[in-house]
Amino acid sequence: MTLDSCEHEKSARIVSVDWDALASDEGKRLKALGVDEGAEIAVIHRGIFGTRDPLAIRIGRMTIALRRSHALAIEVEPA
Description:
- The protein is of the alpha+beta class.
- The protein is built from two helices and five strands, in the order E-H-E-E-E-H-E.
- It has helices at 24-32, 68-71, and strands at 11-17, 40-46, 55-59, 62-66, 74-78.
């Protein structure tokens, strides 16, 4: 499943990231923040508008915001 379909507050592990679906500068930023295969994450907030954009995710002790289009490029499995 992709990150955007993850249940609220449920831990998941990143299985793969489709780096080709992201702009190179966006991919570099996400890697620098620790978004990569093997990382444990959880969706902690979703936007309130129709697209439910952006998503706030917890990765380690950080909270970062992602666009839904980025979350669609991230494959996860329940942790």
